[in-house]
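EI: anyone free to look at a 721-residue chain?
SC: sure, send it
EI:
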Amino acid sequence: MVIPAEQPFFDQAATRDGAELPCRILIVDDDVALRRTLPHVLAHSTRQFDECGTVAEALEKLAGTEYDLILLDYRLPDGNGLAVLDWLAERHRGEAVIMISGEDAIDAAIGALRGGADDFVRKPYHVVQMQRTVQNVLHRTALERANRAMSQRLHASERLHRYLVESSPDLIFTLDADGCFSYLNPRVEALLGFERAQLLRRPFILLVMPEDQDRIQALLQVCRSGRSDGFSIELRLRRNRHMVEDGENTYVTVALNGLPMAGEDGAGIGLYGVARDISERKRAEEIITFQAYHDQLTRLPNRVLFRDRLELAVAQAQRRAGMLAVMFIDVDRFKLVNDTYGHAAGDALLRNLAERLGTALRRGDTLARLGGDEFTILLPDISRPEDAETTARKILDTLARPFALPSGEFRATVSIGISIYPRDGKSAEELTKHADVAMYKVKRSGKNGFRFFDAELNAHHRQRVTLENDLHNALERNEFELHFQPQVSMAGRRVVGMEALLRWNHPLHGQIGPAVFIPVAEEMGLITDISRWVLDRSCHQLMRWRDSGHTDLRMSLNLSPHDFDRAGMVDEVLAAVTRYRIPPAQLELEITESMMMQDTEGAAAKVQALRAAGLGVAIDDFGTGYSSLSYLQKFPVSCLKIDRSFVGDLYGPALNPIISAITGIARGFGLQLIAEGVEQAEQVEVLRSLGCDVMQGYYFAHPAAAAEAEQWLQTPPCAML
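SC: here you go
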């Protein structure tokens, strides 16, 4: 067969009688929509597509058909794509494979490439990326097949041999005994930007980057001595600086295979080398490595890389008897940004925040993002703990300026916990954990500050963790109990209501009050289940008392502000009222004044819905916050409860102007009034004189279980007053 000198061999392999050969592509993916979409995305007049959704179906099709390309999903219902790669390898099949995966772990990409995949595409991908990858693989496969075909014809014609070498996509060259070029194919011009004439009879070492010269010199020396059968290495070859544009690499990474050429006496007379450009593969490996050790949003080191650097810093500090600091940083109110402005604004804030934090650090410090709104900082080689305090203050000062978000300005603050090596821990895990503990203390103490770790703080944190663990199981173990405190009408001289108060009977620590565990339950997200339990038990107890003849008794119970964040909260309350046959007016729900201050439109709407259904709504601890009459119009409550702190100031004939004001507000708005914390007869008389009729407190009865509370309903009121 005669090949015209002007006609590339690739065209001979890829065409027949001037027409392109068909290309068969198999799509293996359990996503039906994806299998139907890809043929349209990759459509070409020469391409034919088959599809299937499992490993078994793929192997069945491959057993009867050979394909040019397989688009293979990593995760399949009956296995993973590696099984298909193993099947192809065992049978020495020549199909090209592009592995497609949604796996985040780098192991998936490494396993696929080691298993023989030609390329790896991570989901989700851009259509253009997939088109380019398929085109590149098909093109590369065609070139490889062409090379194989050419190799089979080498012995047929010297001209064909010359054509193959000259047209190879690889750099092919020979060196003489002195390591100088004796032959180069034209690929060197496109690859490195040098003309062949410039390099002939020049040392090969001149093309090698300085960092790799010692290695290649040693290998060439061994080849010249006749003690080597050849070598395969990766190295960097210098590009012609006159051909390098701004931003481009000054070198090309190649995989070099070198074979020594020996004379008749066996002595080395030169070297035959083939260098393949693997720059794209190296860049892909670098990208995969970067993604494995860096946060994709902020480009900062991630948890894995931070831990590695911290462990190294600890080892160095141990050898030098030095000191280092770890900071754990949490962004205050970050959820507010996501909920108010959207996640795009939240991401923008995190990126800007990362830049600001970096400006407060030294060159050798490490700033990492652990995930969400949590950051960590490593301060190696500090001379005293005060150095960490200085950095913390710099961070707080740096964040003083507001951040410009697409929806407006936002002032971000952070809570910072600090641990010091070796004072606060000898390992990376201890230091990070203790900095985290200190940060949470800042969170609970008002945020926007910093704190060093101390042993007492750790003990408190351990108690907190133990409390959280026990609280998880408290409902299942039936450890909660309701106590009731009577609400007494002085005019009617009888009990008109009961307030349900939650108690936790801990198996080891005895009875725990709600002030201790309710904030923990709210923070852990357990308050919803607890509130449902309180609602159900309270309504059930009220039903029993009503069945006993106390038909006009009112039940009062407290709700968490978190309950008003739930969409179905009103329906749950109404369902309980219906389930236990309770007139709506005899159930009163207490809300806090702080909830009104932080109100969303949704919370006000829920209060309105409860009042419209006939239920009572009381404001607990009224007057302790920033009370505003406008909130009483927005929240149509039915009752105000005077806080015990005001009642406690009533001694003798003294009058409290705040109580006078509250009673006036209640009369003006037509609201019921209840005084809490009544403990003395004098307080009773003063409250009565101010117009408050219903009271509760230790003067009448301490909170007690339902059995004792029922006796109060049966005892004549005069015995209680």
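EI: The CA atoms of residues 312 and 428 lie 9 Å apart.
SC: 👍
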